[in-house]
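Thread: Modeling a multi-component assembly for a lab meeting

Hi all, long-time lurker, first post. My supervisor asked me to bring a structural picture of a complex we are working on to next week's group meeting, and I have zero experience with this. I have the sequence lines for every component (762 residues in total). Could someone generate the structure of the whole assembly? Inputs are pasted exactly as I received them:
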Amino acid sequence: MAVVAAPWRGAFASLRARAARIAEYVTTPVVPSDYLDMISPLRASADLRGRIEEVRPETPDAATLVIRPGDGWRGHVPGQYIRVGVDVDGVRQWRAYSLTSRTDRRDGRISVTVKAIPDGVVSNHLVRRVQPGTLIHLDQAKGDFTLPAPRPRKALFVTAGSGITPVMGMLRNAVDELADVVVLHSAPQARDVIFGGELRRFAERGQLRLVERHTDVEGMLDLAELDEIVADWTERETWACGPTGLLDAAEKQWADAGVPDRLHTERFRPTVVVTGEGGQVTFSKTDTTVDADGSTPLLDTGERAGVLMPSGCRMGICFGCVAPLRTGAVRDLRNGQITTAEPGDDVRIQTCVSAAAGTCDIDL
Amino acid sequence: MTAVISERPDVRPVPDPDDPTAHLTAEDIENIGKELDALREEIIASRGERDAAYIRRVIEAQRKLELGSRGVLLFSLFPPAWLLGTAGLSVAKILENMEIGHNIMHGQWDWMRDPKIHSTAWEWDNVSPSAQWKHSHNQIHHTYTNVIGKDNDLGYGIMRVSPDQRWYPFYLGQPLWNFVNACFFEFGIAAYDLELGKNLQRGRRDDPDFRRRAQQVLRKIRRQATKDYVVHPLLSGPSALHTLSANFTANLVRNLWTHSVIMCGHFPYGVDTFERSSIKGETRGQWYLRQMLGSANISGSPFMHLMTGNLSHQIEHHLFPDLPSNRYAEIAPKVRDLFERYQLNYVTGPLPKQVASAWRKIFLLSLPNDAAERVERAIDGFGPAKLLRGLARRVRLV
Ligand SMILES: Cc1cc2nc3c(=O)[nH]c(=O)nc-3n(C[C@H](O)[C@H](O)[C@H](O)COP(=O)(O)OP(=O)(O)OC[C@H]3O[C@@H](n4cnc5c(N)ncnc54)[C@H](O)[C@@H]3O)c2cc1C
Ligand code: FES
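Re: Modeling a multi-component assembly
Sure thing. I ran the full set together rather than chain by chain. Output:
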């Protein structure tokens, strides 16, 4: 049978390819998908998009967005994040958000939970202004802040503020697969605890032990207190997500205890910033040249100059901002490392964590 | 005949009745520049969702109109279908070239950071590849607006549109050249984006850069022609020939319309031209002033403005080529007020008047200056020779 079917399939494929070529001749100079996007923006062959179908307030300054992803969505592993492209005041902005939904939802929808930060362009828009029905741009899920298989016998989650989001993604999907779970979460007050009700219910049902730290009353968590709160913390596989200070302290604490491998962190913002001299930056496709200092990411420099800069997490993890460095030198703001390129090299650099380290030419 | 604007603001130049800037001091000019910079900042600060929604709406409407019209043309054998489809397709092509293509390629919408609606990504329904058009239009024409010998848009290299250009017998035919150019305007654009006249001379033809660009143009022509004259007619089956003629007509209408609108931008009476030497060391204020005096508007309804791609606000467009076109109407009264306060001539008029004015110039300047003057006297009676007076006002700004 297969022998007979194969030529048919081949003929069918080549017919389809020809039809696609003709369709391109029909619509040139635009492509057929530009027309299809008007009718069916969520179809499988389109650039991945999603439609926000529900905006659910969680706390005074956080909300969950329930999103119907396009048919091209390939699913996710709990703890992973997606890049979200949303138009704020008419300008396309890309940010990363951790997925908080169950992976087996019958309706196929996904969710992210956003906390509005002061002056935050995208977070405030998503929490306070965005309307159900809005189309947004998405990218497939990424990230390795996930639970291993087999599941660890004992787990600890140390979170603060919006840092609960990837952890909630894991708990909703796998809390019953984890025998012994401690969640240590910090928020200013009880009402600021994102997913507070759900976490407390988990605790009531005995699915986990919840330690809430209300920092307005009890002060910031000092990891030195950890011995009292979770005596066996060194034995626990630990996932931590929260502000830079907390994560830096945790990394030191776990290293000092000789168990650095037990700790997994997810950062929402880039870490240490190393700066130096800047230089003149040329974006050659756009034919734009600007002066840049040695501390501003090339992503910001380009955006300010009106260059179409691809982006995502803006902190060096998603590679959504990669562009070829044609010539010149750039500095990695995380570690000060210098990358140089000679004509023809086209070294691919992450613009969100690279700054000019002299004259440079980016192929954008 | 021309005045030199002194670099010392305290010294007024000797007023020259033929120089429309003679009454301005260097300080005035810099103040004009500052006011326009402030106006620009005001618009940039208020760009937002409303503007983004506008261009997306226009693009969507244009696509629906094009799709619908081409759908109707599948039955173009029936005269009403032919008429309706051709009219719709003509309008769709005009919108695509002007309000959408021209303005996106100017970078007016780059601030949205939408990779589809971006000057580096847009390809338009025209035989000139967008990259080449952007170079000749944005970099040459908008930088050297109305500078004789620098701005190829001034007569497109085949016509004499200022008495300061030397007359050759070749120009006797320019009304005909202009008409032919109007009918096949998209090819005219491609030809001068390629600087075909210059590059076809011996020795240049083999220049690899020219050959590469020429190939790009040929490829674009092939794609465009295949679409309009092969694929869509074939899809129409028995209506093939009618669809072919409809598409040809729509291209013709689009060409005539865009050509007319663009002629109105810089050719009508009252628009000034500039000497090559006048732009050396030009300040920002002087640059603005040159754009103000070198452009002309078309008055009309909002629909007219839309159909001209807001090039009816040519003056505002030349001052701020990269501001979103939907905002020009709002800027126009402020710009006009600035013209009035500095006693400058804001050239504007309804389309038929401006088109006639441009054509009149083209007819008259096909003749040597003295003959043109005699003809003009014969038409207008013994008033002042408007053409030569008006046109010979070569402004020297530096
Ligand atoms: C992998 C990953 C997953 C993430 N998941 C989530 C999530 O699930 N939920 C969520 O709410 N956010 C999450 N974030 C953070 C999110 O991507 C944005 O950074 C955040 O929403 C702020 O964006 P903004 O446009 O509102 O702020 P911006 O306008 O970009 O920044 C405004 C100001 O706030 C500062 N700032 C930026 N980010 C933060 C921050 N996280 N905390 C404090 N100050 C900040 C900036 O330096 C600036 O001064 C995640 C980030 C990453 C990298
Ligand atoms: S934007 Fe994510 S790595 Fe740069």
